Structures are given as C-alpha cells and as structure tokens.
Amino acid sequence: MVAVGVLPVFMPYNVATEIWIFALMACSFNLLLGYSGLLSFGQATFMGMGGYTAGLLSLHYHLPLVPLFLSGAVSAGVAALVIGYFCIQRRAIYFVMLSFAFNVMIYYIAYQWTSLTGGEDGLIGISRPDFTIAGLAILDLNSPRSYYYFSGIIFLICFFILRYLVETPFGNILVGIRENENRMRAMGYNVHRYLWACFVIAGMFSGVAGVQYALLFRQVPLDLIAWMTSGNVVFMTVVGGIGNLYGPVLGAGLFIWLSELISPIWARWPLIFGCVFIGVILFFSGGLVQAGEMLVSRWRRGGE
Amino acid sequence: MSILRTEKLTKNFGAMTAVSEVDFEVEEKTLHAIIGPNGAGKTTFLRLICGEIQPSSGRIIFRNRDITGKPSYHIAHLGIGMSFQKTNILPKLTTWENVWLAAFSMNKAWSHFLRNSSRLESIRERAESVIVKVGLQESMKKRANELPHHEQRLLEIAMALALSPTLLLLDEPTSGMAREEIPAMVELIEGLKKDYTILMIEHNMEIVMSISDTISVMYFGKLIAQGPPKQIQNDERVRQAYLGS
Question: Which of A29, A154, B132, B219 suits a disulfide with B241, CB 3.0-4.6 Å?
C-alpha cells in the first residue's frame, strides 16, 4: 500500500501505472505457477482478451468504466474456461506447450481478423471513461495522476483478494495438488476441477490487467496478446520469487522500470534483465524475495 | 454382512495378468488381511478398490453400490480411505497441513471453501483428534519429508483416518519399519479394529496371525485360500505357495 503511494515519486505516472498493471498480471500468473504448480506460457491470451473486449466495448458502445472492467474479466474468464479445460488435461511441459499453443492461435486470430481487432495496428483511439457511480462522476481519470491512483487501487483490491484466496481451503488444496496430485485425488479431491477453477480465476485477473492496460495507453496493441508478453510475465515472476505473494510484484516492478526508463538510454536493456535472471536462477531459486530475506538475516546476524 | 465385494475382478497390464478373476468379500467390522508372496497382485488389488487404477473386467461393490470405474476422489467420498505402501504424502507441507487437507476433504459446505482456513473449527478438531490418535502431536509442525520413516508411516495412516472412512485400506503399514517400532503400529491398528472395517496387506506373519479375523491368500493374481488364521496356517496350498515346493 505504501508502495502505491510512493512509487510516482521515483518515476513518471504512466510508468508507475504500468508497473501495477503488470504486477497484477504477474500475481495472477503466480497463482497458477506458485500455488498450483502449473506453468502457463499463455497468460497474455487472457490479458489480451480483457484488453480487446474492453477496447471494443468502449469504442463501439462507450460503456462506462465499471462494466468495462467486468466485461473484460468475464470474457477473459470464459476464454480461460475453454482453454483451461484442455490445458489441465496435461502436466509439466505438455501443459506449458498447450497453453503456449493456444496463445499463438489466439494471437493469429487477433492478427488476421482485421475488421474486428484492427490486425497489426491493434485497437486505437480508446477513450478513458470517468469513474461514475449511479450517474455521478466521482473521478475524472484523464490525468495520468488520477489514473495512476485508480490503477493502484484496482491492483490493491485484486492483490488482497488473491492474498485472501491463498489462505482459504481452496488455496491450501491447490498447494496440496502441487505437492502430490495423486494423493490429493485419493483423499477425495477432484483435482481437475480445482485446477480448472484456478486457471479461470487467474485468467480473470489477467483480464482485469488487460482492461487497465487498454485504458492506460488508450489503445490495444497486438503485442498485448503476443507470446512475448506471456514470456515476460514468466520472467517477472521467476525473478521476483515464485510462490510468494510479493515476489511477482517486485519482479514486475523491476522489469517495467528497466524497460521504460533504461530502454530510451540503452536499447540493450534486456541484457541487464537477462543477467539478473541468470543470477536469480543460479543463486536464489526463491527469486529476489529470497535474496532479500537472506540479506536481511545476514545483516541481523552481523549486528549481533 | 459384507461391506465390500468383488466379482471376477481382473487387471491386465499388457500381457501380464496382475489380478485374475478375484471373487472376494470383506465382512463389516472385521480385520481382513491379504497375504501372498511378492508380485502376487496384492497391491494392485487394493489400488483397484480405491479407484487409483481401473479394472480390465469384473465388478467392485461397496455397501451395495457398484463402484467399478469410479474415480478415486469419488470413492474416497463414499467411505474408502487408503494408506499407501510407498509413503505417499505431501512432502513439503507439515504434518498438520497433510492431515488438515485430508480432514477438509470430507467437508461438504461450499461456504467453507472461501473462509480463512484457520477459522474452520470443526476441521481443526477433526485433524487434531486424528493426530492425537496416531500419536504425532510432537511432530505437528515438522515438514512431512523431514519426519523419520516410522512417523511418515503413521502420517500415512492419519491421512486415511482423517477421511472418516468406513473401510480402511492399509497397504503394508509396517513396511520398512525397524523391529522395535512395529509394536506401536500393531497396537494402533488393533485400536482401530473396533471403529473401522480394515482390509490390510501385510508381510509380517506374526502380525497377520495375531490380529486378523480373516486371511485371504493371493498367489499369481489368484485368490487361493481364505479363512480364519488357524485354518490358513494349516492350508496345504498356502504352504506350497510360500515354500515353493
């Protein structure tokens, strides 16, 4: 919460907003990888679904803000319902490849169906509706600052829902499935149903992130639904720390910060991120969160 | 009254027949042991009953209900709890979490899924009572894969018990245990006899003869003898199967 407050001190509002959007995206991905043990290499599918849905509804029907978010989440959820049904039939690398294949398929549909999606150009000219409740305009979101705080609050709401979720029996069951699927089945758990539900929930949160993204840039670039985005989310989460609630947030922050602030200065910025990535994988499998914890404990020991 | 019945139950793995046309019955509130040399198909037989693998042919009837072909999670809900021969726990979770998840499994209230786990009193009580029953109170907070072997065996049984089953399947509960650890396990199983129907595979003859009500003998996938311990001890075919003469 403090981070949402102080982040814009260090960087422009739009960059900070993008950080929270991808933080939400990485958190939803982490629900799959960190808790259920499913590595989805197609999370951009759902972010894209959310983005395109909100973009189209805003362009053609000028829907208000809240319905935009709801429809984005629902359409991403429906996509996850269908795609998830097939993906969870398999595990490990086969699950990865299935989620990836669906991502590629949806990407090409978005690319080819120019009349609907704008093809290579994406959707452009989306307007940001005011935040209204019962017809009363509460907040004009057109300034970067107000949109930043709005996005930050959306992120916090989603983050707290996810944090709550992993402490419910539902979250515990997912971890149990990650640890030993067969035993969970023998104990009476319909493993498929839980994984499917988890896939849909993660998809919906990714959809929300997609809506936020569309409204931030007032456009939906084709890249939003491309597998590169899926891959970036994997990087963010792994660098930040898998299976920890704060890890993905940290990873997304670092990734977006590097890409937005350093890329204008030095186009080879992914090199830095690549080094961090390798370092993390080799030395801290728990990501930056684990590295931080180790530093803190060493510092404490040193102080004694 | 019989609680479990199989009719011509058969399982083929390719050309190999692991379980061959077994007709079998377990009486309610008895301890029924299955013995037989290695590779006789005993474990396969239990895995068929708990639904972990599906039979090639034949039927399984549990409490007058055909459960053939039902998935294992469904069978667990009908009241069959399995404790595995090869320790099959959730390795990185604590003893408490292992048992808690088993205890929660029989919860039917949808609203419970979305409440904070630590606030579910009824589940906590059930998990606690099972942990006390098998005597793992001291190791509650330890990770399951860090427990000594005999405690992992107890955890196996605790996880099956937490499902509140009517029929308890125990696949070699003493497997891999040191001689001095075995009496405690036998005592535990004897204590369970009055509350559960137990179907158990066990290699240790001393244990089998002392605590079983009925013994079935399997040999190359077939059921070759069945009866009370005394009768089995004197059965000619059983001796041949074991002594190979």
Answer: B219
